[in-house]
Amino acid sequence: MPACDYPLRFQPLFRRYLWGGRRLGELFGKPIGAGDDYAESWEVVDHGEDQSVVAHGPLAGATLGGLVTEHGTQLLGQHAGAARFPLLLKLLDCNRTLSVQVHPNDAQGALLDPPDLGKTEAWVVVAADPGSKIYAGLKPGVTRDDLAAALAAGECDRCLHEFEAQPGDCVFIPAGTVHALGAGLVIAEIQQASDTTFRLFDWNRVGADGQPRPLHIERSLAVTDYDRGPVAPQTPQPLAEPGREELVRCEKFVLQRWTLDGPTTLGGDDRFHILVVLQGEVQIAGDPADAPLAAGQSALLPAAAGDRQLTPTDKAVVLTMCLPD
Asked: What is the Rg, in whole angstroms, of the alpha carbon atoms belonging to the chain?
């Protein structure tokens, strides 16, 4: 197999849910079909049968999971040895409010059948209609009994902390945090490579089949972190390089936002980096696609690719993601 030492782009995987819409196509030019329920574009994923497939270059057609197996050191660098690629990048079109959810942590996920990772995640608001809400964490003092009673009464929202979302907001959602995205949002989401979701509440609505969607109330109550309380947007931390700020640093990932008005470099530190463009266009040196990444497009820079120059066409805003030391 050819070396895994160049910028990788993948074919997006689409997920259609009742809360989706058409903005993945309208905002980002994603090749969605004629439906109005396109909810998620999985940009970088290695999770069971859900696999990103390389779109360009000598490795075209290879899956991300296959690259982890065949080129673990070249791809992951200092983090080689992982059973699968540890992060998952999505773009979400929240045309309707999502269900209220919670995710287990790693220890709880290991007890599932089949076992899975926990799911700590972060959201960056790409677009927000006026009045769009984010629900993140419980109101102060809410106990397990309080939440259980609210769920039994069909009034879960009385326990939820909420705020009006603004473009550019970053919200960090550790495992165990009760959360939901409101209608009118477009979100970039970085998370652990897990697909384990427990649904507490679905706003008393029904699915396309006319039936309520399944809930996982007991499991949700068991994994909820009742000590976390309300979650507010992150306060970005300026970095030494002009135009760069750190949004999240946790044990699962590091998320930064870079505003580019000239060339810069990414990589060269013996780890992989994920890049997604939110505004503008960015050319990555050595990208076999031979075209800049446009808004909504992403790439994975393997550890073996070294440092690569990023050149914005004009001004660009990108998110970068990697694992911590």
From this structure: 19
User: Would the pLDDT of 144 be above 80?
Assistant: yes
Q: For tokens 């879960």, what's the residue?
A: 156
pLDDT in the model for residue 133: 99
Cα-Cα-Cα-Cα dihedral sign, residues 111, 106, 302, 313: positive
By annotation, the residues acting in catalysis are 199
The CB-side HSE value for 94 (13 A sphere, CA atoms) comes to: 25
**Longest CA span, the chain:** 58
What are the b/e assignments for 108-118, b being 16+ CB within 10 Å? bbeeeeeebbb
How far lies 71's CA from each of 6, 194, 317, in Å? Answer: 12, 22, 30
What span, in angstroms and rounded, lies between the C-alpha atoms of 91 and 112? 26
Alpha carbon distances (Å) from 57 to 10, 286, 287: 11, 10, 8
Judge contact between 223 and 118, C-beta under 8 A.
Answer: no
Count of all residues that appear for the chain in the document: 325
Instruction: Answer for the pair 193, 84: CB distance below 8 angstroms, yes or no.
Output: yes
CA angle 114, 249, 231 (to 5 degrees): 80
Q: Which residues pair with 191 in a beta bridge?
A: 88, 121
pTM, two decimal places: 0.97
Token pair for residue 133?
Answer: 């809400």
CA distances to 12, 134, 157, 204, 298 from 146, in Å: 41, 21, 12, 19, 42
Look at residues 316, 322, 307 and name the one whose alpha carbon lies nearest to residue 265.
307
Q: Report whether 215 contacts 152 (CB < 8 A).
A: no
Domains of the chain from N-terminus onward: 10-223 (2.60.120.10), 237-322 (2.60.120.10)
- The pLDDT tens digits for 57-111 are 999 999 999 999 999 999 999 999 999 999 999 999 999 999 999 999 999 999 9
